[in-house]
């Protein structure tokens, strides 16, 4: 696995412009007239007849999304990605199953209001009332975990996106599949980066949201930091609706080398701003979710030097060529094609949340195409066997009893905010080194 991942990083920046097309129905062989005047020739091998068309079917994808509440920004981006996929796959005529059935897709979604208590009620409604054939998770690990219970109970496949917590996949579920890199691998790269940029750094403060996802991330972060010889001088959690972080910021000891943690967009962007206003000096600020979002640039000087992990960035150009070198099949649009069509449709840059929404639906599409069916057991088999490369990166699932459905191949990248010569704040990929578009730097004094 280690060698495989090493190869992947080497090829991340390769370009490519190949779009995998949907398979077409094979033509029926034409009967040929026998010619009596000629000697008999060996009969050609029989060609398989095209499957008899079985008509058309609409497959419904059901999901909830945070169209309101604290997860509104991330939730809307995720919906954008799903809707772009829907427009593209239906625009090509949908899919043809093995029995000749033509399948197009529809979506049915509800606003979960960023509220876990609403999720199970709404997913039950999606299955029983709206007759959803397949499910996509809501954004956030807590909401996805609540939806997973219902999906498994009703024997429905659900692709989770915007949900990185490892713990969901340790509960014995067999129909839940994760698109994101797991939370346990979210911020460990920031420790490696700090060690390279500031070898003498020793003290780390961790301030985090007290939700499932963020807690999973920082527990893994703390363990990794301690294993590398760092001192964790502060380890504090805050409630999800916190808007004043003074009580936590005031606990950061003098001489702290790095401040890490955060949670989701709203709280992390506010924490970032208040750390700047209180002139907290550290060599590194590394936070969850907010840094990769283009909107964080609106914080101006407060965003300078801030680092964050991202599930996907347009500058990381996974390509058909890199897939071929790794012996993996390529599926779906190239990074450039996704980036261009997303911008055209929504008039904004895609974030990893929008890429993750598209990827979740695309993963389901790939499984249906391989299965040649929408039968749950056949699609599940295709997901269990999936091992491919796409614009979103590598996709493969753990199929062990202990971690079934956990993402096993997709990797994180890290971005950092810079100030360009025009005075505009821009983000660049800085880690891993082989995929970087710029070199990382330590934060200047505030």
TrEMBL record:
Compositional bias annotation for Low complexity: 36-53
Domain of life, source organism: Bacteria
Leader sequence residues: 1-21
Signal recorded as keyword: yes
Keyword vocabulary terms for this entry: Signal
Entry-linked InterPro entries: BCAA_transport (IPR051010), Leu-bd (IPR028081), Peripla_BP_I (IPR028082)
Domain Leucine-binding protein as annotated: residue spans: 58-417
UniProt-annotated stretches for the region Disordered: 26-53
Stored Pfam families: Peripla_BP_6
Family to which the UniProt record says this protein belongs: Belongs to the leucine-binding protein family.
Protein name: Branched-chain amino acid ABC transporter substrate-binding protein
